[in-house]
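Researcher: Sequence recovery benchmark, item below. Answer with residues only.
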């Protein structure tokens, strides 16, 4: 069933992946029912169902 206004995914670029994982895992997994979907050296994604996910990707450090 299609839902108007529903998001498929959001990709967020972060400057500190470790800090972002700590905060967002606490919120998304512990309180909102998301599960870790994928994890790699420069990113992590969380999914609530097969149609919706959030991705965090480490950006290059500023020089």
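Model:
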């Amino acid at each position: 069933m299609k839902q108007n206004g529903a998001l498929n995914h959001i990709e967020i670029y972060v400057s500190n992946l470790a800090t972002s994982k700590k905060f967002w895992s606490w919120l998304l997994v512990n309180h909102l029912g998301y599960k870790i979907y994928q994890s790699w050296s420069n990113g992590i994604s969380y999914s609530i169902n097969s149609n919706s996910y959030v991705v965090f990707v480490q950006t290059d450090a500023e020089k």
